[in-house]
Amino acid sequence: MKISELIKTVEVKIPEFNVSVKIKTELSWYEWVEWTNIKDEQERGKYVTEKLIVSWDIEDEEGKPLPITKEILERLPASIILPVQLKIQEVIKETLAKKKD
User: Fold this and answer.
1) pLDDT digits (tens, 9 = 90+) for 7-60
2) For the chain, which residues make up each domain, given as ranges?
3) What distance in Å separates the CA atoms of residue 47 and residue 74, rounded to the nearest whole number?
């Protein structure tokens, strides 16, 4: 099996900004371990958002894709990040529910 088949993704479209964000449906094992060690809920949310975003079509002023970093995420408007975080929460709930079955 190819690694690309193991890592599922979904796309979040933010029409207001004509932005598309691709997110993984689950953290890697290492990311999960790191995430569970973060006690502050806000920091956990920031961590999981950064780690689950695979790609986006957000560019800098020169037309180059912006890297997906905590610093860049902190600069983006809430109207871009909140829909992504809502989808992440939905995906995490679905993933956890499947693991319980």
Assistant:
1) 889 999 999 999 999 999 888 889 989 999 999 999 998 999 999 999 999 999
2) 3-96
3) 12
Single pTM value for the model: 0.84
Q: At a CB cut-off of 8 Å and minimum separation 6, what does 27 contact?
A: 35, 48, 51, 52
Contact 22, 54 (CB under 8 A): yes
The answer to whether the CB of 45 falls within 8 A of the CB of 53 is: no
Look at residues 76, 81, 75 and name the one whose alpha carbon lies nearest to residue 12.
Answer: 81
Number of Cβ within 10 Å of residue 17's Cβ equals: 14
Classify 3-96 by CATH class: alpha beta
The DSSP code sequence of 16-76 is GGTEEEEEESS--HHHHHHHHT---HHHHHHHHHHHHEEEE--B-TTSPBPP--HHHHHHS
Phi, psi values for residue 12, rounded to 5°: -115, 120
The whole-number pLDDT of residue 101 equals 63
